[in-house]
């Protein structure tokens, strides 16, 4: 497979006809934008039709990730895959839905040779699983919270409506900024009862 054929396949698969493949092959910015459009189309299709064949979708998503990861510019492929993970987490119906979806692409993620990039995507998936479990009513322990990245702790501090989660972040957040955001939000908003969601 060549970069040109990979891009053509992804764009045709999602009906994206207004991207010049020659431009995308030659220009990393155009290519990155094309990948983001493919990822967006994949996530949008999943949110519109949740009753589709899950196995077929997982196979399709895994093939898409494998194709994107063949891009010769590692930063572009990593950005596209992280964008996919983020979008699929937002579209997930809950932690188990996301866990099943991410398990489908893990074999491709585990083939990434750059350990830092591979681990970054693994951490992102763990962060989203924590977020989705909190949204489902789980209150994490301080140890679970400590395993979350600063990015996810900040997302939780800024968006959570659970007083128990905000109290935990105010006490145990990894940075002063996270602790202050959580403390301010816990004191200034009407929040759900403990365990009532993210």
Short description:
The protein has 198 residues and is mainly alpha-helical. 74% of the residues lie in helices and 0% in strands. Mean pLDDT is 90; it is low at 192-196.
Descriptors for this entry?
198 residues; mainly alpha; disordered C terminus
Structure description:
The chain is mostly helical. Helices cover 74% and strands 0% of the residues. It has 11 helices and no strands. It has helices at 3-13, 21-26, 28-48, 54-69, 74-91, 95-109, 115-135, 142-147, 150-159, 163-172, 176-188. It is elongated, with a radius of gyration of 19 Å.
The number of helical segments is: 11
Termini gap: 43 Å
Average pLDDT figure: 90
Quaternary organisation? single chain
User: Strand-residue fraction?
Assistant: under 5%
Largest sheet report? none
> What is the total tally of β strands?
0
- Write down the Rg: 19 Å
Low-confidence segments: 192-196
Task: Give the helices and strands, then pairings.
Layout: H1 3-13, H2 21-26, H3 28-48, H4 54-69, H5 74-91, H6 95-109, H7 115-135, H8 142-147, H9 150-159, H10 163-172, H11 176-188
């Amino acid at each position: 497979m060549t970069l040109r054929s990979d891009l053509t396949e992804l764009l045709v698969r999602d009906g994206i006809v207004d991207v010049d493949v020659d431009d995308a092959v030659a220009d990393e910015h155009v290519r990155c934008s094309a990948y983001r459009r493919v990822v967006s189309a994949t996530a949008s299709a999943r949110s519109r039709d949740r009753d589709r064949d899950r196995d077929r979708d997982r196979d399709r998503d895994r093939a898409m990730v494998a194709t994107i990861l063949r891009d010769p510019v590692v930063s572009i492929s990593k950005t596209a895959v992280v964008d996919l993970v983020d979008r699929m987490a937002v579209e997930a119906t809950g932690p188990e839905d996301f866990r099943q979806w991410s398990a489908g692409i893990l074999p491709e993620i585990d083939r990434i040779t750059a350990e830092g990039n591979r681990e970054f995507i693994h951490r992102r998936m763990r962060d989203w699983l924590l977020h989705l479990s909190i949204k489902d009513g789980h209150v994490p322990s301080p140890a679970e919270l400590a395993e979350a990245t600063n990015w996810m702790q900040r997302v939780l501090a800024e968006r959570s409506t659970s007083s128990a989660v905000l109290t935990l972040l105010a006490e145990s957040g990894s940075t002063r900024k996270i602790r202050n955001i959580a403390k301010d939000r816990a004191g200034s908003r009407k929040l759900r009862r403990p365990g009532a969601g993210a």
